[in-house]
């Protein structure tokens, strides 16, 4: 099917979805979960073929691990759909409302975007996840996955569409977009058919979509996240947060990538921190000041402070004071999550006010910047742009609003 | 000055503005108003030169009227700045906040975008207006006006920057972007320096910015606004709303462009409506069904239903029923403001739910879809896109948010 036909079918389905009740949408999500588990054999067989092809082409183990499905992972995908059914429906929420002096009443009401395009990499679980979030928020989804997961995605999509149909909703509400790279270009050019594009994946993918798209984009994020240990920091607390933010799950966007230590704290903090990091298997890439505390610290190239390692590596520097820390962050931040550990109220206030990022944290691990940890129950990604949504994006962020204006014949003077 | 230097200066100024108190920003707005009136002689002289050049080059009277400044118009610009000073500051507003089970507290707080670029046509009043709205919302403004108003804009900008400096804020908070068309392209490419671009003007300008920009854009709107007179409409009310929406100010985006009449209402409504429209000087371009009621109705070409006349012209058609009206609107809407006049609750509900636009109106004139009429006190434009802001955009729509996460050393399990 051509992309244009697919997008028009999605637009038609979006009209039905926009006025579907929560009960109907939740029934569809439960049915999608059932169909997904019913199709386990077919989905795992298709996935095995994707994995075999990836192995034959020399794909790294880390990528193959993302690609591989197991009965447990499929179960988690089904659970995710059921959890979505339990969340409140953002559509129809009245954001605000008032009555004008002339008696005209105005309500601002949440409505779905319409058609949402999601472009993502080789993670077949995103197919179910993104389809579910889109459906719950009343949007039709056009899912553009990686060619390396095509067999898995096709098998998953068959099951999801059966579930949608089971609930009496149009199955074109969820569609896989297949084809070569030119199809991605078509998606990015489809103003008027696609209402918003969300790229999920590495920096290269995201930049290509942001730069090439005529359709509005929500940029989800790379995270070059910093931790600043202030002179007044409780150093036990700083050490806990440092290790948690770096080590607990290094491959994700809210993991720590750079440690900045106030010069006054460095002599007491860095020896302990570097030893603990080494014990945890972290390779530190530091400035000369950092290296003076440990021979195990590798020299950091200047461009290393712009790197999102996503691994057990950490850049580290000693800074003169709070101003220098804020200045370093301004220069290198990707605007995701930035943390200060301090006991000084003025320092905390200034850090919060002057650091420009989706999230700023005081005395807590950046790993909390996440839709699940925020209690949102679902997350389509973490926005690092300032327009529309910034930070973890959940169901309300998948909607727009509409003003409903009602009168009794009033006209403007 | 190169655009890059200007944008960097704006970014520096934006950091100061972001933490400026409301009192300081309001003082700047009052000082800008004073400086504008003090500079009346210089501004009017510069404007006279722009007007003379426009007249010599054969510019239309309507455009020259937009371009021309008078002491009254300058006074209105100053009043606009003072009114902004009276409005609440959106920056620092806590949108929501909660404490997670682990004791970590989260607040979502409004923050400025940073640097806002505004690209607009030959209306020198927009220079003061946009600079004021940007400043009040804590944003630095890069204003790209039309070359035909350059002398006026330069004189206005001198005064505005003096006012900004009077309050102790950096004068690079408001800047005029000069140069040939290549500068507009630089603005659209300045990801990382410019946080958001807002084009204000005709459809050609807006499309060029939306299609060409790598910086996120808020699309402000063309309005092909429809009025549907339902079978059950109170026809006196429908006539009032029709005339008000079409005639009260035909050159603006929330004015009516297309009339759709239910077939059952046509025999009684159209003769009265066509006579009243003719009396008001409106030229109606109708389908054959409409023309059967009056010889004065011109034949409507099919593409006329996509036209935003912005003049005393109106397209008109008779439709079989509500479904046909909704279908017609879906095909031709620009997503601005769509109106139904009806006494039927089911028809009103369906129209509100099924018509996809920034505003849907029941029994009220579309001329109410306006920041001033909504009581917002200021308006930077009316968004017809679904991302970030939809409908009239005021001070809160000129901000982003930031999550502030505070703990006592919590880490993620």
TrEMBL record, chains A, B:
InterPro entries with a match to the protein in the record = Ald_DH/histidinol_DH (IPR016161), Ald_DH_C (IPR016163), Ald_DH_N (IPR016162), Aldehyde_DH_dom (IPR015590), G-glutamylP_reductase_CS (IPR020593), Glu-5-SA_DH (IPR012134), GPR_dom (IPR000965)
Q: In which pathway does it act?
A: Amino-acid biosynthesis; L-proline biosynthesis; L-glutamate 5-semialdehyde from L-glutamate: step 2/2
- The chain positions of domain Aldehyde dehydrogenase read 4-279
EC supergroup of this enzyme: oxidoreductase
Q: What is this enzyme's catalytic activity, as reactions? A: L-glutamate 5-semialdehyde + phosphate + NADP(+) = L-glutamyl 5-phosphate + NADPH + H(+)
Q: Which residues form a coiled coil?
A: none
Chief location of this protein within or outside the cell: cytoplasm
Q: Which SUPFAM superfamilies match?
A: ALDH-like
GO: which molecular function terms? glutamate-5-semialdehyde dehydrogenase activity; NADP binding
Q: Which PANTHER family match?
A: DELTA-1-PYRROLINE-5-CARBOXYLATE SYNTHASE, GLUTAMATE SEMIALDEHYDE DEHYDROGENASE
Its name, as the record gives it, is: Gamma-glutamyl phosphate reductase
The gene is proA
């Amino acid at each position: 099917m051509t992309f244009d036909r697919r997008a028009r079918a999605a637009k038609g389905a979006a009209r039905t979805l926009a006025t579907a009740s929560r009960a109907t949408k939740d029934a569809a999500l439960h049915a999608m979960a059932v169909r997904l588990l019913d199709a386990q054999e077919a989905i795992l067989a298709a996935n095995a073929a994707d994995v075999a092809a990836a192995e034959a082409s020399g794909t790294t183990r880390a990528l193959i691990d993302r690609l591989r499905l197991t009965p447990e992972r499929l179960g988690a995908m089904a659970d995710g759909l059921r959890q979505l059914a339990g969340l409140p429906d953002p559509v129809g929420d009245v954001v605000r409302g008032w009555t004008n002096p002339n008696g005209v009443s105005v309500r601002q009401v949440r409505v779905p975007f319409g058609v949402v395009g999601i472009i993502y990499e080789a993670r077949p679980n995103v197919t179910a996840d993104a389809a579910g979030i889109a459906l719950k928020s009343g949007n039709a989804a056009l899912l553009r996955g990686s060619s390396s997961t095509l067999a898995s995605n096709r098998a998953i999509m068959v099951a999801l569409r059966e579930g949608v149909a089971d609930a009496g909703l149009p199955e074109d509400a969820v569609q896989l977009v297949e084809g070569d790279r030119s199809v991605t270009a078509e998606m990015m050019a489809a103003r008027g058919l696609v209402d918003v594009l969300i790229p999920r994946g590495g920096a290269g993918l995201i930049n290509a979509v942001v730069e090439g798209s005529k359709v509005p984009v929500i940029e989800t994020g790379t995270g070059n996240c910093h931790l600043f240990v202030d002179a007044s920091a409780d150093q036990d607390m700083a050490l806990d947060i440092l290790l948690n933010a770096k080590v607990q799950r290094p491959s994700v966007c809210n993991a720590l990538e750079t440690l900045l230590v106030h010069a006054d704290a460095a002599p007491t903090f860095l020896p302990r921190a570097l030893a603990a990091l080494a014990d945890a298997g972290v390779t530190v890439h530091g400035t000369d000041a950092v290296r003076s505390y440990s021979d195990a610290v590798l020299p950091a190239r200047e461009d290393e402070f712009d790197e999102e390692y996503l691994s057990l590596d950490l850049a580290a520097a000693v800074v003169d004071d709070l101003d220098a820390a804020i200045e370093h962050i301004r220069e290198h931040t990707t605007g995701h999550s930035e943390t200060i550990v301090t006991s000084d109220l003025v320092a905390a206030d200034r850090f919060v006010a002057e650091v420009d990022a989706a999230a700023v944290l005081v005395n807590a691990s950046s790993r909390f910047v996440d839709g699940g940890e925020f209690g949102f129950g679902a997350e389509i990604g973490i926005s690092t742009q300032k327009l529309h949504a910034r930070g973890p994006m959940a169901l309300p962020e998948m909607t727009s609003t509409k003003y409903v204006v009602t009168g009794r014949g009033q006209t403007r003077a």
